[in-house]
Design goal:
The chain has two domains: about 1-45, Orthogonal Bundle (Arc Repressor Mutant, subunit A), CATH 1.10.10; about 55-145, no CATH class. Helices cover about 60% and strands about 0% of the residues. It is built from nine helices and no strands.
Length: about 150
């Protein structure tokens, strides 16, 4: 993106041609060129501001994913809905700035969930299978070491 903006600002080519050559949307390149023209310093942000809208920090999301993995290992896998409710409760307890739709519905949004799953690639949230009581109690370290 920096190279494309530099090419346009130097007058090497038009915005339309540079956008076509670099595979960037013309309107996106136009926005960044305008931003660069009006900026006082040369260190402008040339990437989307996704960080501004994140509810949890990376460490908090890792803690949440560790909890989900631990619950899964203890035969208590969580569904999509229960994961979203857990995220909402976690955000409220940590006094996070959350969207109003979360407060209204009492759960995290589905878009947040999909983004969370993309960022935490070690998770695979599916509908948990039922585990019988005898199977859950008979599977322990001593039994598994003998096998």
């Amino acid at each position: 993106m920096k190279a494309a903006v530099a090419m346009v600002l130097e007058g090497a080519d038009s915005i339309r041609n540079v956008a076509k050559d670099m595979g960037i949307a013309k309107s996106t390149l136009q926005r960044y060129v305008n931003k660069a023209k009006h900026a006082q310093s040369t260190d402008i942000r040339l990437k989307p501001a996704y960080d501004n809208k994140l509810v949890f920090t990376n460490d908090e999301e890792k803690d949440l994913s560790k909890y989900l993995l631990t619950a899964s290992k203890h035969n208590h896998g969580l569904t999509t809905c229960s994961t979203r409710k857990l995220a909402y409760e976690y955000a409220v307890r940590n006094k996070k700035n959350i969207p109003s739709s979360w407060t209204h519905k009492g759960t995290a949004g589905i878009d947040w969930f999909y983004g969370f799953m993309k960022r935490q690639d070690q998770l695979a949230i599916r509908s948990p299978e039922a585990t019988s009581l005898s199977r859950a109690t008979s599977f322990n370290k001593n039994i598994s070491r003998r096998a």
